[in-house]
Design the sequence.
């Protein structure tokens, strides 16, 4: 049986564009969060600098959610069961705080307040990014 490589390994269409769309959605979520939650801010002096800082913070946020969050969820699985999933709010708040700390350590300052502001920031960012991602996905689906 003669199989060519293309039939064995499925290629994702526009994987890079999908990543950029998700990154833009996360940037929008972070931008809305900085305007809604007063103790969360991004320190920048110009609009172009704000966009760059938002892009880097969105990359850090994506990396934290892709790499660290599954590990934390696995280690805290008993707490998820005991609290019927409400511990996810604590996890998201702590990971949002970690994102602020990591981005500040990289030289792109993001000020996060305490636990409650990080919780609000994580929820707002995820809701706005889901909405923007859904809008971008709908436009892409209509094109195809």
Sequence:
């Amino acid at each position: 049986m003669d199989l060519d490589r293309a039939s064995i390994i499925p290629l994702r269409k526009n994987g890079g564009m999908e990543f950029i769309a998700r990154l833009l959605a996360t940037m929008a979520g972070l931008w809305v969060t900085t305007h809604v939650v007063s103790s969360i801010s991004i320190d920048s002096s110009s609009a172009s600098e704000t966009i760059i800082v938002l892009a880097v913070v969105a990359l850090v946020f994506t990396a934290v959610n892709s790499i660290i969050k599954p590990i934390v969820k696995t280690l805290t699985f008993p707490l998820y069961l005991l609290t019927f999933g409400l511990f996810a709010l604590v996890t998201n708040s702590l990971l949002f705080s970690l994102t602020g700390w990591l981005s500040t350590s990289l030289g792109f300052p993001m000020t996060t307040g305490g636990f409650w502001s990080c919780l609000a920031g994580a929820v707002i960012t995820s809701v706005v990014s889901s909405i923007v991602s859904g809008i971008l996905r709908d436009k892409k689906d209509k094109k195809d």
